[in-house]
Design goal:
Blueprint: H1 2-38, H2 44-55, E1 79-82, E2 86-89, E3 118-125, H3 127-134, H4 137-144, E4 149-154, H5 164-174, E5 181-185, H6 188-198, H7 211-215, H8 221-247, H9 253-272
Parallel strand pairs: 3-4, 3-5
Antiparallel strand pairs: 1-2
Helix pairs in contact: 2-8, 8-9
């Protein structure tokens, strides 16, 4: 009997050691793979930044005509109609830094004058371009080599497509803005969004995305069902982010990879609506 108990304890200890060793090996391998692909070390801040983006969403509600727009709950900020650009982000509410003109990521108004010591870079485009403005390390390092102070002005935001980028540039220029360099990134939204959003609603394809929803006062049953599914998926994604932050260590790259996989599944379904 004593020998049997010792064998059982030995098996439990052995199994625990194997699990711990396997987990450690996965963590090390994951961190190496992340460094090779991203050229930076994984840290808790990377995970937390992704969680903040999801948790910063404002829930989509249906309390009046202003909330009928399925894009009114863009990541971190609601959108409002703009007379020249189609739409911008609302400075009131949400977490993301938004300037007085409705452009995200800027700490002050996006109008600057060229100087001998500064270097003004304007970033224009959709969500990918906004990502470039968010992760601006390479831009800052390139300017720093010239011994000039970089000033990054972002007008890019999710869903923008031509001619919105061009209109944003001319809009700022007409108000006196100056740039040393302009970065415009487009291509995907221009091809994908008109066919999937405006044309099915008989809206001119070069109007801003989902222009039908931004301007209509009444929605059909199919649209209501789509909005309901959109609300459900966004709540699921937010709940998944809350679960990650409250119940697991953000220092684990294995948990980050698992969370990111599920988050991208939900985001893909949201983007397809």
């Amino acid at each position: 009997m004593l020998i049997g108990k010792k064998r059982c304890i030995f098996k439990i200890i052995t199994t625990a050691l194997v699990v711990i060793s396997g987990g450690f090996a996965l963590e090390v391998t994951g961190r190496i793979a992340y460094f090779i692909s991203k050229h930076q070390l994984y840290n808790e801040g990377i995970f937390r930044h992704q969680l903040d983006i999801i948790q910063g969403e404002i829930p989509l509600v249906s309390t009046g005509a202003d909330n009928l727009n399925p894009d009114s709950s863009e990541i971190a900020q609601p959108e409002i109609i703009h007379p020249y650009l189609g739409f911008v982000q609302n400075k009131i509410g949400g977490r993301m830094r938004v300037d007085a003109f409705g452009f995200p990521l800027n700490s002050d108004i996006p109008i600057h004058k060229r100087t001998e010591t500064g270097y003004i870079i304007g970033v224009f485009g959709g969500s990918f371009a906004q990502g470039v403005a968010t992760h601006r390390t390479s831009l800052v390092e390139a300017v720093a080599q010239t011994n000039r102070t970089p000033v990054i002005v972002n007008t890019a935001m999710g869903g923008y497509k031509q001619p919105q980028q061009l209109l944003a540039l001319t809009y700022l220029l007409s108000l006196g803005a100056e740039f040393d360099a302009v970065i415009n990134i487009d291509g995907f939204n221009e091809v994908a969004l008109p066919m999937s959003e405006n044309l099915p609603k008989s809206v001119f394809p070069f109007f801003p995305r989902n222009w039908y929803f931004r301007t209509t006062q009444r929605l059909d049953q199919t649209t209501h069902l789509m909005l309901g599914e959109l609300q459900y998926l966004k709540r699921e994604r937010r709940a998944w982010a809350n679960l990650a932050e409250e119940n697991f260590s953000l220092k684990s790259i294995c948990w980050f990879a698992l969370w990111r996989f599920r988050e991208r599944q939900l985001s893909s379904r949201i983007n397809c609506l």
